[in-house]
Design brief:
The chain has five helices and five strands; from the N terminus they run βααββββααα. By secondary structure, the chain is an alpha/beta fold.
Length: 154
């Protein structure tokens, strides 16, 4: 197995892709807003958002600690223009199939790039303190700092 060096998470995230005061009435609306942020970043075609719903309808992207990581199916890869992340915070949590979600991290990745990205995100999101810090972030600088912390911890 080749251990491909994953890009640093902070390099995949444009400042305009950090949205800290989003509002969504439902899981689907939160996914749509996350997808729209990826469209706005120039990372995906609109059709990728459909692949995000396909993924969600087959396997929940809720990962715990108030965080979901919506991303597309393999079939949606053709809609990805460039690897990117978006982070949306919902100060009023969204009901995600019975779980409360305060943060979504949208992923667009070509090929198998999403696997390395998910692995790095998991190291942040499975840490209750880091996840709490992400949920409580009020500035894009705080989000960058949390994502960059994975690059130093190993």
């Amino acid at each position: 197995m080749t251990d491909q060096q994953a890009p640093e998470l902070s390099t995949l995230l444009a400042e305009s892709s950090i949205r800290l005061d989003e509002v969504a009435a439902s899981r689907d609306e939160a996914i749509r807003k996350t997808g729209q942020a990826l469209v706005d970043a120039g990372a995906i075609d609109e059709s990728y958002v459909d692949a995000m719903f396909e993924r969600e309808n087959s396997v929940s992207t809720y990962v715990g600690e108030g965080v979901a990581i919506p991303h597309g199916t393999l079939a949606g890869k053709d809609s990805v223009k460039e690897d990117a992340l978006v982070v949306l915070r919902f100060p009023t949590p969204v009901d995600w199939d019975g779980n409360e979600v305060s943060v979504t991290v949208g992923i667009a990745a070509k090929g198998n790039g999403h696997i390395a990205i998910l692995s790095q995100l998991a190291s942040i999101l499975m840490d209750p303190d880091k996840a709490a810090a992400l949920r409580g972030s009020t500035t894009s600088a705080e989000v960058y700092e949390l994502l960059a912390s994975t690059d130093d911890d190993d």
